[in-house]
Amino acid sequence: MLEVQGISVSYGKHRALEDASVRVAKGEIVVILGANGAGKSTLLKAISGICEGHVSGSVRMDGTDLTDKPANRIVEEGIALVPEGRGIFPDLTVQENLTLGAYSARARDEEAGNLERLFTLFPKLHERRRQVVRTMSGGEQQMVAIGRAMMSNPAILTLDEPSLGLSPLLCKELFQNLKAVRDTGIGILLVEQNAKQSLAIADRGYLLENAHIVHEDSAAALAVDPAVQKAYLGGAAAKPVRSAPVAAPASAPRTQRPAAADPAAIAAAAMQNFAPAKRAAVAPPPPPPPVQAAPPPSRPAPAPVTPPSPAATRPQGIQIDDLVSRARATSAAQVSTRNAQQPRRDPPRPKLADRTTAMPDLGNSADRLRAALDEIEQAARRAEAYRTDHNRTPKPTGK
Amino acid sequence: MEILITGLVLGGTYALIAMGLNLQYGMARIMNLANGEVLVAGGFAAFWFYTAGQISPLLTVFIVAPLAFVANWLIYVIILRPLVKRAKSRGQLEVDSILTTFGLSFIAVGVMLAVFGGDYFSYSFLATPVQLFGDTYALNRILAFLSAVVICGALYLWLNHSRTGMSVRAIAVSPDSAKLVGIDVPRLSAIAFALGGAVTAVGGTLISSFLTLDASTGVLFTLKALIIVIMGGVGDVRGTIVAALMLGILETFVASVIDPGLTLAAAYALFVIILLFRPQGLFGRKTT
Amino acid sequence: MTLTGKDYKNISVVVILLALAACLPLVSGAYLLAIGVTIAMYTVLATSWALFSGPTHYISLATAAFFGVGTYTTGIGIEYLPYWVLPIIAGVLGAVMAALVGLATLRLSGVYFVIFTLGLAELVRQVITWFQNFSGQKGLYVLTEITEVHIYWQLVGLAAAVYLVGWLIGRSRLGFALRIIGDDEEVAAHSGINTSRAKVLLFMVSGSVAAIVGAMLAPRYIYIEPLLAFTPMLSFQVVIMALLGGTGRLWGPIVGVIPFTFLWEAISASFPNQTTLLLGVCFLIIVYLLPRGFVGLLDKIRSKINAAEAYS
Amino acid sequence: MRTDAPVLSLRGVTKRFGGLVAVNDLDFDVAEHQVLGLIGPNGSGKSTTLNLISGAFPASSGTISLRGTPITHLAAQDITRRGISRTFQLVRLLPSMNVLENVKAGAVFGHRRRWGAEADSYAMQMLEQVGMARMAHAPIGQLTYIDTKRVELARVLASDPRLLLLDEWLAGLNPTELEEGIRLIKSLRDQGRTIILVEHVMDAIRSLCDHCVVMSSGAKIAEGTPEQALSDPEVIRAYLGDDDA
């Protein structure tokens, strides 16, 4: 069992990770989701002892303290990292990469057995074992990287964005492979941007936002969490149903800028991603016309300290419009409040458990899914129409 | 034909020296400009053992190699490692290590001058002629060449087929990845550096059996070794051997056809051509 | 060009110091004058070296090559041309040679440049020796009316010129470009600076000055031969003096040159056989104890004093 | 319809690194005064595209032209001189210089070259624009993270570019800083500057961009207004992964 307790990392003045705690047991896949720059890679680097910043906190593997140990010692304790950029030896052959993977003392005795197991898992590596890795495709290189890490006979495998640069098909294959690795009893800690696919194979997940771990839940729960979507596509994507009818009529002149919201409001919307307690508050610019009459704002949206009591006071049908109008009404006020509040955001942060209960109940996930699919179809039609009408990069097919 | 064989023979010994430097620069990432002094020291040892105790240079090799290994290991750990740790960037390490190894080379020259004096030294070992393809060659050169072939071959096998050799190559290819597979990079870098020094010193021992050396010729060998390593591609064993043979043949050609005084000029001309058209070396790959 | 009051002050200080330096032959004996020539020579060489190597961090070991080319320009040319033309020709030759070397190597990493310049003096020496073998002569006699005092004044004048050029470069776009290149070459390129051109230009200045110094010093040697003109030790001494003083400021190298010249005199006198060894020790001392030279040390002390004042 | 050439146009631009195709046959145009968002998941080739435009390395094939003139094979400094300036993903400042000198670097060597007092005053003007004038003489080491970003932006602005490339300029900012950052970029937009924005902060994309190009695995998968592009099913798939459900 890998236990990371209250780890903080800073690069000079820049705090890349603050007080993060994560644990991974053997035989489970744990995924860490988060936007770019949220600190995901830093966390994995800190665990593996290759972080260049200043690290505090503790990393323990089966009770052995690994904090401040050199990277090669950490490998000996059974943690293998597949870093971003793969961490392979591009000028060596597949076979050599794998042999090097088994360099550590803990792996040597089992080298033959591990290799055999690996080749059953990835037959392609066996086929290509004499090939120089640099000449292989991105997906194959990723396979080598995972194979290399598995050769060190790890108890925990950590991977930094393994799907990076892979085509959707290869991604699918990769995640299937990871599942197979998990089934051999290895624990996997996965940092990913590809939320849907990684959640589909994961057991648990953490949401990392702006250097903090803001949420922990089962993978199934995270998969239907609108906050996860928002973390990737921003405010409006979480409510595609609403934006569909009004969004961008195809005839809109393209030089026209979107209704210029004031920057504070934009930032406010963007910041919804950072402030966990306000996850439900969506203030997308340009705001769509309310479908139903919005109830008057009961209190300013950004107040982060006490999470709103769920479901009961907020009928989900009007929730978004409600929040939109509130956000609009208070957007000017928000700036000053926020300026005053943001820096002090940390101390009153509610505990994880509180926050999970504060998650707004979005009802039946099947309904949501259906709505989302409808929306996607509409969007596809719209996009098609737009393409034929307004193809400004003339390709033969457009005419 | 004669030029070709003499050139190949000379190139073979160059390959050995350059291999030593390549281990130090390509693998341990230290540009060692005191490399030539290590070579001269190896030659001195051979000279001393031969004149004082009639010990064959071929035997001296077995004394020189472990001594040079230990000495270079100490140099790396005591003098160079602090620089590696202090360096914030590759560029800074390069400047620092160049200056430091210059200093070391001067110190080595100074010590050798103090111990042996400034004279040329040479001894006559197996200077008997042998017939080969109708021409005559000195036996000591042939022997030196054969020894170089054996050592280069052994090194090549070691690097490509042993576990430690492979991990040394791994450090050369990607030190960051090497850490992740559990390789103790600082320790292995020291070993690569020490081994490079030992190989160079052995090269010096062999060369001293047919070339005249003096305390300050080291820098010429450093230059030649550097040119070979860069021509062949840093960290590339095959390239080193090919480049060394090329240089050996070129030098022999220039020396016998134009003027023996122009060998370095010829080497430089070759070097410039390589720099202009293939700056990554014959076998090196462009870094992007 | 606008000059501030501080500029005027600095200029007058430099002019006064140079004038004082020029007065040395009037008051000193032959020995002191000889040391004066040595100091003036290394000041010019180290300052021009630092003009290029300071901002770019490329370590040039080609000083001896340029110097030797200059010496030979005088040695060969003195028979055919009036003396005053020769330093000019030497300067042009040095610049051309530097341009060629720079174009071939300055695009590449620093190591290639070091290696190339390290062998350059030896390369030129071999070629010249080879030429001489044709003509059958071993060396050249440079017999002129020029005395040690003349050489000294020429060098002081050249030093003034080098300081002026360095000061002008520092105020020019080229100097600004070099500072940017020294900080971050990629930013420099993306700011619109032609980085290789800037580097080659500065290397040309540096090479040209070294060749002029060689041309000026040739009469001192009277007899020149390749081994003397292209002694690699010269390159190393220039590097060490410039680094000892510090390359961050125009006045840095001279701070290294003066103490080092006296130290070197003492070493050569007391340990004539250990000079090489002690030069090596000097290298190590600089790398480990004075990585930014005396200038860096002064800056450090000054900032510590400032910090202490800020607290009190 | 349009008579004037677009400020920048890419046609069939491709970049290979060894066997890996980082950018694959990319076409798009940037019109005058347009703010174009270049978005896509990590590793989709956005930064590589920016590097190709700015001349950090050459394209393997295809053409990039600035107002109809090909600039595909020019060196970085020549591209900058012709009027394309960029910021770097990880801020790159000149550590030995103060804030004003950093900005002056752009003013002196950029698209429109200035020198002496003119460069100083122009650099100062740019510092005012990004709100850093009061720090003009501060050393770089004293700056906070967002301030370093602002100085870098000022340096780029000081070169008077026709086209501005911002590489994840908002990444890594905390909420307060993010707000300032968005306001700053918005002010640039309102001046009518032509900008390519590589960005992950989607709300910023939505509000700042006129037009979006979405990339995935090196290729363009969608294009249009931010609303259109972000609701494109292909885009949703690229970001959230294949939906197995």
Describe the structure in your own words.
The complex is a heterotetramer of chains A (399), B (288), C (312) and D (245). Helices cover 41% and strands 16% of the residues of chain A. Chain A has 399 residues and is an alpha/beta fold. The model of chain A is unreliable at 234-260, 273-365 and 391-399 (pLDDT under 50). Chain B has a single domain, classed as ABC transporter involved in vitamin B12 uptake, BtuC, CATH 1.10.3470. Chain B starts with a helix and ends in an 11-residue tail after the last helix. Helices cover 80% and strands 1% of the residues of chain C. In chain C, helix 5 packs antiparallel against helix 10 and helix 7 (148-171) crosses helix 8. A two-stranded antiparallel ribbon of chain C has the order 1-2. Chain C has helices at residues 5-22, 24-27, 30-56, 63-77, 85-105, 110-135, 148-171, 173-183, 185-190, 195-221, 226-229, 232-245, 252-270, 275-289, 293-311; strands at 140-141, 223-224. Chain C has a single domain, classed as Orthogonal Bundle (ABC transporter involved in vitamin B12 uptake, BtuC), CATH 1.10.3470. By secondary structure, chain C is mostly helical. Chains A and D meet through helix 8, helix 9, helix 11, helix 13 and helix 14 of A and strand 2, helix 6, helix 7, strand 10 and helix 8 of D.
Q: What is the multimeric organization of the chains shown?
A: heterotetramer
The percentage helix of chain C is over 70%
Shape of chain B: globular
Estimate percent helicity of chain B. Answer: over 70%
Instruction: Name the average pLDDT of chain B.
Output: 82
Based on helices, strands and strand pairing, what is the structural class of chain B?
mainly alpha
CATH hierarchy class name of chain B: Mainly Alpha
Domain tally of chain B? 1
Biggest sheet of chain C, strands in spatial order?
A: 1-2
Q: What is the strand tally of chain C? A: 2
* Residue runs with pLDDT of under 50 for 5 or more positions of chain B: none
Strand order of the largest sheet of chain B: 1-2
* Molecular shape of chain C: globular
Distance between the termini of chain C: 40 Å
How many H/I helices of chain B? 11
